[in-house]
Amino acid sequence: MESTRNKKNRQENWKYTNNILIIYKLHHPTADINRLYVTRKGGGRGLIQNQAIYKAEIINIAEYLNTKHAEDQFVNIIESHESSQPYMNSKIKTAEKVAEQLNQSNENSDTKRKAFNT
User: Which of these, 29, 46, 52, 66, has the minimum number of CB atoms within 10 Å of its CB?
Assistant: First the structure.
């Protein structure tokens, strides 16, 4: 589970980013915020959400630790330390939860798509 401190930090980062975009006239204050995250080909600005970057990096770190721990002694030490951490502090355990959430959201969107097409 993600701590409330991390959520607050991300929200503060978003407010800061949004203010910078408005100050430099890259985004209008009353414009649609969701359009920022639509791809350029889709008519948006093509920004990537902080949360998506965070989730992708957590999964990449966990994959690296799981695949390289037998080859490198330092990675092995990190992997053993990570596995002994409580759930909130372990990046490997957080990555497992994020991957499960992504799989569930993909399954839900697939079933919605199937229901819509029938």
Answer: 29
Q: Are 3 and 88 in contact (CB under 8 A)?
A: yes
Q: Using N-to-C axis directions, what is the helix angle for 50-68 and 4-23, rounded to 10°?
A: 130
pTM summary value: 0.54
Same domain for 81 and 39? no
Q: Residue 19: which domain range? A: 1-47
Q: What is the pLDDT along the chain (118 residues), one digit of tens a residue?
A: 456 777 787 778 778 888 888 899 888 888 877 777 787 788 777 777 777 888 888 888 888 877 776 677 887 787 777 777 776 677 777 888 888 887 777 676 666 555 555 5
Q: What is the DSSP letter of 46?
A: -
Clarify whether residues 34 and 68 are in a common domain: no
